[in-house]
Amino acid sequence: MRSSVLLALALACATTGAAAAERLAVQIDSGPIEGIIQGGRARAWLGVPYAAPPVGPLRWRAPVAPAKWTVLRRTSALGPACAQPPKSGTAGAAFIGAEDCLTLNVYAPRQPHHDHLPVMLWIHGGEGVYYSSADFDGTRLAAAHDLVIVTINYRLGPFGWFHHPAITTAQGSGLATGQFGLLDMIASLQWVGRNIAAFGGDPGNVTIFGESAGAQFVCALILTRAASGLFGKAIAQSGGFWNMSRAMAINYRDAPEPGTPASAREIVSELLVADGKARDRAAARRIEASWSHDKLREWLRGLTTAALIAPYRGRPHLDYDMPLVVYGDALLPAGDHRAQLARGEYTAVPMIIGGNRDEQKYFLASDPAFVREAGGRYSIIDPARYEAFNRFNSDWWNYMAVDDLAPRLSMPVYVYRFDWDVAPKAHPEFGAIYGAAHGIEIPFVFGDFRYHEYEQLFDAGNRASRERLSAAVMSYWAAFAYRGDPGRGMKGDLPQWQPWLGAGAKLIFGARDIHMSPGAIDGGRLIAELFANPLLTPAEKCAMYRDAVMYPSYPLAALAGRGCSKDR
């Protein structure tokens, strides 16, 4: 009793005077929590549960509220990553993380200049299969511009995105969907609406932002009516509407409407064989056809975490084949994103969208068919072919994520291209190998160059360049979070970021300067140039074309017209 009274007094006192700025103990709807001082400049509450563990009977269910507590809970450690395969080349464990993973982290300035700070909720990328909120530290961004940063975990891989009818028809309340990761994101936004004021944040001023698959989910949240009203601005970094038809997400790969090689039925076939229920794929298909949804669902729920993740381990092309956002279910109605946007069926909020000049180099750099290593030095095997692969794939990515999207949006949209490519002195060859590769802008957004994907690119020689550009990027992102218009940044000392306005105006984040540049990418011209490229074989052209046009559904006639099939 005495400890409860003292806790109540401490929480009450912490809301007044100078103590409010350093407030670490706060009350949220599930109970009292206490944060830490992070990096000397921000307060942080780490590993805060926003939903109950999605395990046992809650596996493949919509998130529900966590259990309440009354004793002060110290939130000083990051929660576990959501269960996922080890990254390729990693030996040992069958998986990393845990199914019990629905936590978030809150970062707030140590000495905020005012209350009701803008809130930015980060959705991490990783193909919907990898990474976690722990990979992104919001300390510097929060402290630099008086923001409240929230980073979230959401279910990944088969736990977050599983579209088999045996699963989707069992949700109840009309919620027939396999997009559990998207439901988690909605639940985290609802948590922000209920609780963020306790951390000094304004629940009426929330910006969602994400990169790669995280940006894809930002776009999906714009489309789903269930997220309407939960945010007022959005930033999509290297994302776009990579949504997939239900046929692609569910069907066998040889069905008349083909599914991807990682579709729900293909994965179930692999699981039946692995579990000893079937000798081969043909036998597995017969078993699946004979079992009721109830029986199949009960068997799936009984599989271990490791067993469910096994089919995704080391799987080539998973970044394209993994069914994530799917239209035509309870969250996203029939018709792909182009149809929804044309009908005006989306949350029209101001947006920043953009991409990196050399997106594809992230993938090419680790491919021994393109880059060789000898004695700790790296070299491109055939620079002309390297650039041919990079240029088409990177330009097409930017076309889909930016230039094809911006004209379809009715709200204010601000477009960028990230071009920073300063190589470290120790590895000058990295300038050509990586360039402005996929994800390289993330450390600039967070002001944190410890980002593990690119640590080898950052050294003392390029520190001044990257820190100067990072300060500008953070300033633009913060100004957008405050006002819905990046303008000239928080201090008004940066080049004016003009909106798209149908003219293809982009802000270029370069190594030497920041400037506006006109001109939009022509998708038809890219395809024509691809098939005219003498450096690529017919099979390579078909593979690149197939990947480019497979979303939102395989265009079988277009593939045949180019002499290509849907099969790799």
Approximate shape: globular
CATH superfamily of the largest domain: Alpha/Beta hydrolase fold, catalytic domain
Structural class determined from secondary elements: alpha/beta
What count of structural domains?
A: 2
Mean pLDDT: 93
Please indicate the percent range of residues in DSSP E strands (runs of 2 or more): 5-15%
Strand order of the largest sheet: 3-4-6-8-7-9-10-11-14-15-16
Share of helix, binned: 25-40%
Report, as a whole number of angstroms, the end-to-end distance: 67 Å
Q: Supply Rg.
A: 24 Å
In this structure, how is the largest beta sheet organized?
Answer: 11 strands, mixed
Poorly predicted runs: 1-19
The count of helical stretches stands at 21
- Given this structure, which CATH class of the largest domain is correct? Alpha Beta
Strand tally: 16
Question: What would the CATH topology of the largest domain be?
Answer: Rossmann fold
How would you characterize the overall build of this protein?
- This protein is of the alpha/beta class and 568 residues long.
- It has helices at 2-13, 139-145, 157-160, 165-168, 180-195, 213-223, 246-250, 264-274, 281-290, 293-302, 305-309, 318-321, 337-343, 361-364, 383-403, 430-434, 442-446, 463-483, 523-532, 538-549, 556-561; strands at 25-28, 31-34, 36-38, 42-49, 73-74, 103-109, 117-123, 148-152, 201-211, 233-237, 351-356, 371-374, 377-380, 413-418, 506-509, 514-517.
- The strands form three sheets. An eleven-stranded mixed beta sheet has the order 3-4-6-8-7-9-10-11-14-15-16, sandwiched between helices. Strands 1-2-5 form a three-stranded mixed beta sheet, with no helix packed on it.
- Helix 8 (264-274) crosses helix 9 (281-290).
- 47% of the residues are buried.
